[in-house]
Design a protein that fits this description.
The complex is a heterodimer of chains A (859) and B (331).
Chain A: H1 17-22, E1 37-43, E2 49-55, H2 57-61, E3 65-70, E4 94-95, E5 101-107, H3 110-117, E6 121-126, H4 133-136, E7 152-160, H5 163-168, E8 172-180, E9 192-199, E10 206-213, H6 218-229, E11 236-239, H7 255-267, E12 271-274, H8 277-283, E13 289-298, E14 304-314, H9 322-331, E15 342-349, H10 365-381, H11 386-391, E16 399-400, E17 406-407, H12 412-422, H13 425-428, E18 436-446, E19 461-467, E20 473-477, H14 486-498, E21 505-509, H15 526-553, E22 560-563, E23 566-569, H16 583-597, H17 603-613, E24 618-620, H18 621-632, E25 635-641, E26 663-674, E27 681-691, H19 698-717, E28 723-724, E29 727-728, E30 746-752, H20 771-786, E31 792-793, H21 797-808, H22 832-836, H23 848-858
Parallel strand pairs in A: 1-12, 8-31, 10-11, 14-15, 20-21, 27-30
Antiparallel strand pairs in A: 1-5, 2-4, 2-6, 3-5, 7-15, 8-13, 9-10, 9-12, 13-14, 16-17, 18-26, 19-20, 19-25, 22-23, 23-24, 26-27, 28-29
Helix pairs in contact in A: 6-7, 10-20, 14-15, 15-18, 19-20
Chain B: E1 7-9, H1 14-24, E2 28-31, H2 37-42, E3 50-53, E4 63-65, E5 71-74, H3 79-84, H4 86-91, H5 94-99, H6 105-110, H7 113-118, H8 130-135, H9 164-170, E6 174-179, E7 182-187, H10 188-191, E8 207-213, E9 221-227, E10 238-247, E11 250-259, E12 266-267, H11 271-275, H12 282-295, H13 306-326
Helix pairs in contact in B: 12-13
The chains are: A alpha+beta (859), B alpha+beta (331).
The structure holds flavin-adenine dinucleotide (FAD).
Chain lengths: 859, 331
């Protein structure tokens, strides 16, 4: 399809690329202020314990320590969801996971702050802890939060249609349990916050607060800071510098962000805290370990008649986004295929581990793994091609699904066609040499939530544009660029709408003093919502410019075309095409005009020029801007976006999560090989087709699709958080294994454009939807290669080999029993009792027992 | 995590280096490439008062073929040089094969052969931050009295996880150790103790200076198979080095070295007896694999289960022997 756009639809470099690639770009940790202190946080060594007392006096006496703060310094609770205000900046009375935040030291150096942590004496009373969600659900005493019986954060039970009847009438029913282990974002940049108070000029006491933070959600941060610090929001300014990746891990208020401010208040000096990688793992908010019991009913023709899913999520110790996650897991059973009957039982369970939250593909990924794997099993059972069974269950948009989701643009059929064709599926599927296979899977995702987490009527995005006599277009947007390219997207949308050069556009983003509210970079909402707000703001300014220019050009405003940094009268060519100033003549004229007027044109001289030259067919963007400012006094526009009521979903409890103004679609084919001796899986190639509505910046869309596939592959094959009684065994990037470049398959990203009726220029989301398809595509390819069905991710070589052995009835590979040359005959999971009772070692110099002995000697 | 403060000493000769070691023995750590030492210091596994940076000692670097056969490697030779050395690839291929799997290209530029030989043993309960180790009340290797891997045990099972020593064992390598009292040479096989928290026979005042590959080990074909989850960066979860010599279509000698499955790298005994002088068969290779697996005693010191890691020792040994015994081209 050809189009007449000059800026969008072109692959262009990100507007902030130079700073990032040369190292001159500033991330939060690159910032420093005069007198700045370094903050270090003391974390709990126990998974569940009551704090009997904290004594910070020894730490305070250490030279170079300026302040030590504890829970009492900021006792107000907060949490990202209004229903989940269960966190404190620092623990008040209880710690709930190994790594929970207990105290913070602000000191003149990192080393001194670390030393001071060792001088804080905390007296804990140990409490029995819960680590397994299915056990945790049964707990009646020693609850993690007193107001959550059975450690149940939230459970939902939805029935749409008549699933029981459908199951009774089914030709075939597939049933199985799937388990997806816990994964985390592993963004390159660890969280960092710098907080500084200004002195009030009148009282000399602490006044306004400025916080620079690695966040996806500056406005939520401003809001929570105001709650915890008991300051009006207007006194708090949050600035987001460059962010080195978020993936959801920075999409809520992380304790570090509040702690830095609390410490700065106590120290009366700026405080910066940067997490170590281990602390990033404790802050977590990743994808919960999920148990999916899934049942699907089909007819012999492959049509799905009902789905029942019971989903248990191991949510960790705090609510975080948990209520939303468990709802997405159910809601997004809909809107991909046409499923007339759905039953969903979702349980979000609290355990004594770091809180899980939102992670790329929030809520949908693990259930999609189960669903697409089971669909593959069904296809095999019905002897139907796996791509074909997916085609037989397509939606017929525009429509509203049984669970209330409105679907308009729907590129899924084309996505499937694309990957089938490009992978030569029909010729190769099932015909590859032994040990090599192809698998297909699909997925989808929201382009932003139609209902915001804070219930209000405020627009989800607002954008201001200011244009001045210098010809510069400044966009003030609250959108948080976290590396995904929203600054570039906003600049492109504005430049396209105004027909001006991209180089004129400057983006001021994510600074709560300067930019109007945008609720943040999460749920893939930014292009759709902030893009629409930008579009509307630009259209508003454009109208003003057109009105002024029309006078100058002696035509109706509607007849003016904005393009290539010029305004032209439409229809001059007479051939139906838009007029375009051709030839050197016009061009040289425009050069002299702009040369003369640039930046400093005066009303008088312009009027003189107008008289000299009379009405024009074509003027430069700058001339038009000057005319408009002369005419209107100033040139600015505002646009905002609120999702339409029709897109906001049904009325049932929990109906607020899932609805979106538009859904992206993805289909993928993965080609893998499996080493039957070792169980090692190699992914050779992934064909990933993604319907993003319209690709505003194709190279950026491809990057997002490739990144999603890669991240999905990590979850499929190598990434897994390993726990022993609440202790994270792999809190670092050496042992938590995200794929390296060596492990990268070739990814063929295929862009499908379904042109959404409501998206900006038809665009939808591009950055999350692809991830969920990768895991089942790989699982299904493994099945094709060696005939084993893997129900637990990641598909590590030992799990694959164990499954291969089981299939062959060969010597089983026992995954829990080990060889132990000392007494115990069996490997057992590390017994928490053994260590947490603390009868261990007294040898470390920091060990309290030993310290007392030393002190005793000194006295 | 900050690096604990220390005084940096930078000698230019071996003599200066060993003098400094003697002077500060017990309170000093040797830094070669630093790729193992520095992360461990950040985790507060070591907090020495002095760090002896030996990178200026020129004489400790280089790959030198000897006049009467054999090759001498300076302890400071970077793994990248070993990986790409023509002499080694031609005569001692098992060593570059193992070296090229260490960590990642960047780490191989910094990491040295001496550091790889002296590499600290590793365990999930040990290679963690101070804060983390407190949460499990420390472990027997460092600051504690408990082993979490063999609960109730009083011995440390931290696994030796360097890649090249498995290959060096196959080559019957010797090492030279210097101190103020002179030089001593030991077989690499005798350097390791098999005890996780006291894994090498190196006094605090001693410096590893050179590695010798004997002429008698030249010309063995070599292969190294490494179990890891990612194709790069990861330490071995199990490693098998095989050096094999053929003559007249028969196997003359086979040596199998293992790493990452015991507190010391180990040679598998009995493989030569099993295979020497015979034609290669599937069963014989399988039997060698079983022997190797019996030598491996992996525990839960790393990712993946011990059962699986031991199984891979068997599979890798068999695969490596079969491929070396049957491949056409020498080297
Ligand atoms: C991310 C990562 C991945 C890694 N993966 C691997 C891997 O896959 N395989 C592997 O084998 N290693 C791996 N390593 C460890 C390390 O990079 C290599 O083992 C390297 O060869 C160590 O050499 P070095 O010179 O850097 O040692 P250093 O860190 O300088 O020293 C290591 C130890 O040896 C001592 N030492 C060094 N030289 C001498 C000497 N001449 N005399 C006496 N004592 C000495 C030091 O005091 C220290 O205790 C990895 C490291 C990292 C950080």
């Amino acid at each position: 399809m050809t189009n007449d756009y000059s800026i969008i639809g072109k692959s262009i470099a990100m507007v902030d690329a130079a700073g990032k690639t040369t190292g001159s770009g500033k991330y939060a940790d690159d910032l420093s202020l005069p007198g700045m202190l370094y903050g270090k946080i003391l974390h709990s060594p126990h998974p569940h314990a009551r704090i009997k007392s904290i004594d910070t006096s020894r730490a305070e006496r250490l030279d170079g320590v300026i302040a030590v703060v504890t829970g009492k310094d900021a006792p107000n609770p907060f949490g990202i969801l209004p229903v989940g205000h269960d966190e404190h900046a620092l623990a008040l009375d209880k710690v709930r996971y190994v790594g929970d935040n207990v105290a913070c030291v602000a000191a003149v150096s990192e080393t001194i702050a670390e030393k001071a942590l060792e001088l804080i004496d905390v007296d804990y009373e140990h409490l029995p802890a819960s680590f397994d969600p299915e056990e945790s659900m049964k707990a009646e005493t020693n609850l993690i939060h007193d107001n959550k019986p059975n450690n149940m954060e939230k459970d939902y039970h939805h029935v749409f249609g008549d699933p029981d009847k459908a199951f009774a009438e089914a030709d075939y029913i597939a049933e199985g349990r799937f388990l997806a282990n816990e994964v985390t974002h592993a963004a390159m940049e660890p969280h960092c916050t710098l907080a500084a108070f200004e002195l009030d000029p009148h009282t000399g006491t602490l006044g306004r607060l400025t916080v620079w933070s690695s966040t996806q959600v500056p406005y939520y941060l401003q809001h929570k800071l105001s709650l915890v610090l008991e300051m009006p929001m207007s006194q708090i300014r949050v600035i987001k510098p460059l962010v080195g990746g978020g993936f959801g891990g920075k999409s809520e208020v992380i304790p570090i962000e509040i702690i830095a401010a609390v410490a700065a208040r106590a120290a009366q000096r700026p405080v910066k805290i940067t997490y170590t990688r281990e602390e990033v793992f404790w802050a977590h908010r990743g994808r919960p370990r999920t148990i999916v019991d899934l049942k699907t009913a089909v007819k012999n023709d492959g049509s799905i008649t009902a789905v029942k899913a019971r989903v248990v999520q191991d949510g960790g110790a705090y609510c975080s986004y948990g209520v939303v996650t468990i709802l997405y897991s159910g809601a997004l059973l809909g809107a991909l295929y046409d499923i007339p009957n759905i039953q969903y039982d979702g349980y979000r369970v609290l355990t004594n581990k770091p809180a899980c939250g939102a992670m790329r593909g929030h809520g949908t990924v693990n259930v999609r793994f189960a669903f697409e794997s089971q669909l593959d099993e069904i296809a095999a059972k019905l002897k139907m091609d796996p791509a074909e069974i997916r085609r037989r269950n397509l939606l017929k948009p525009p429509c509203i699904t049984i669970n209330g989701l409105r679907v308009q643009s729907y590129g899924l059929p084309e996505c499937i066609d694309q990957v089938v064709t490009r992978s030569r599926w029909n010729e190769r599927k099932g015909k590859l040499p032994r040990g090599r296979g192809l698998g297909v899977a699909c997925s989808h995702y929201v382009s932003g939530a139609a209902n915001s987490i804070i219930r209000s009527d405020m627009p989800h995005s607002t954008v201001n544009i200011k244009i001045d006599r210098d010809g510069g277009v400044v966009i003030y947007t609250g959108a948080s660029d976290i590396g995904q390219g929203s600054d570039t997207m906003v600049a492109q949308v504005a430049a396209e709408t105004l027909g001006c050069a991209l180089s004129r556009v400057k983006v001021v983003a994510a600074d709560t003093d300067l930019t109007p509210i945008d609720i943040g970079s999460y749920s893939s909402r930014v292009t759709f919502m902030n893009g629409n707000a930008t579009l509307r703001a630009a259209q508003q300014v454009k109208k003003q410019i057109a009105a002024a220019a029309a006078k100058k050009m002696n035509c109706a405003p509607e007849d003016i075309v904005f393009k290539n940094d010029r305004l032209e009268r439409q229809g001059l060519c007479g051939d139906g095409r838009l007029a375009r100033p051709g030839g050197a003549e016009l061009r040289s004229e425009s050069a002299t005009v702009s040369g003369r007027v640039e930046g400093q044109i005066l009303r008088g001289s312009l009027q003189q020029k107008r008289k000299d030259e009379g009405p024009k067919d074509s003027i430069t963007f700058e001339e038009a801007v000057v005319a408009a400012i002369d005419f209107h006094g100033a040139l600015s526009g505002t646009g905002s976006y609120t999702p339409p009521p029709e897109a906001r979903g049904g009325k049932h409890k929990g109906a607020g999560v899932g609805p979106s103004p538009a859904y992206s679609y993805s289909a993928q084919v993965a080609e893998v090989s499996v080493d039957e001796d070792t169980g090692e899986v190699t992914v050779h190639k992934v064909w990933a087709a993604h319907d993003c509505g319209r690709a505003l910046n194709p190279v950026s869309v491809e990057g997002q699709v490739i990144g999603s596939v890669w991240m999905g592959m990590g979850q499929a094959l190598t990434e897994e958080m390993i726990w022993k009684d609440g202790l994270l065994m792999n809190p670092g990037l050496l042992e938590y294994r995200s794929p390296s470049s060596v492990d990268s398959p070739e990814v063929e990203a295929i862009i499908v454009e379904s042109i959404d009726p409501e998206g900006p220029f038809g665009a939808k989301e591009a950055s999350e939807g692809s991830l969920a398809a990768t895991i089942p595509a790989i699982a299904n390819a493994i099945y094709d290669a060696v005939g084993i069905r893997l129900h637990e991710s990641p598909f590590t070589p030992e799990r694959v080999l164990a499954a291969l052995r089981a299939k062959r009835n060969a010597k089983p590979l026992n995954l829990t029993q080990g060889v132990d040359p000392t007494a115990p005959a069996k490997f057992r999971e590390h017994g928490g009792e053994l260590c947490f009772k603390g009868k261990g070692p007294e040898r470390h110099e920091f060990d309290p027992a030993r310290r007392e002995a030393q002190l005793g000697g000194a006295d | 995590m900050s690096l604990p403060a220390f005084k940096l000493l930078r000698p230019r000769t071996t003599a200066e280096a060993v003098a400094l070691l003697a002077q500060h023995a017990g309170n000093i750590r040797i830094l070669a490439g630093g790729t193992d030492l520095l992360p461990s210091m950040q985790q507060k596994l070591f907090a020495p008062e002095y760090v002896l940076d030996i990178r200026r000692v020129r004489e400790l670097s280089g790959i030198r073929p000897q006049p009467h056969g054999g090759v001498e490697l300076g302890a400071l030779t970077p793994l990248t040089d070993i990986e790409h050395s023509d002499v080694l690839r031609q005569h001692y291929p098992v060593l570059p094969e193992a070296a090229k799997t260490v960590a990642s290209p960047v780490l191989r530029n910094m990491g040295t052969i001496g550091g790889n030989i002296c590499l600290d043993t590793r365990c999930l309960w040990y290679n963690q931050s101070l804060q983390w180790r407190k949460s499990c009340a420390f472990c027997i290797k460092k600051d504690g009295d408990l082993c979490h891997v063999a609960p109730g045990g009083t011995r440390c099972w931290a696994a030796f996880s360097g890649d090249t020593p498995a290959a060096l064992l196959c080559l019957d390598a010797e090492i030279e150790i210097a101190s103020t009292s002179g030089l001593r040479c030991v077989k690499l096989a005798d350097f390791y103790t098999g005890i996780g928290d006291d894994y090498r026979r190196l006094r605090p005042d001693e410096l590893l200076t050179r590695v010798f590959l004997p002429a008698s080990s030249a010309g063995y074909r070599g292969a190294y198979r490494k179990l890891r989850i990612r194709g790069s960066i990861d330490y071995p979860l199990a490693g098998v080095a095989v050096a094999l010599k053929r003559s007249n279509g028969h196997i003359e000698d086979v040596r199998v070295g293992l790493t990452a499955v015991n507190p010391a790298p180990a040679l598998v005994s009995g493989v030569t007896q099993l295979l020497a002088g015979r034609r290669m068969t599937e069963e014989r290779a399988e039997a060698a694999g079983v022997l190797a697996a019996q030598t491996a005693k992996p525990l839960t010191t790393s990712a993946l289960t011990p059962e699986y890691r031991r199984e891979m020792i068997r599979v890798f040994t068999k695969q490596a022997i079969v491929s070396l015994a049957t491949e056409r081209k020498l080297g």
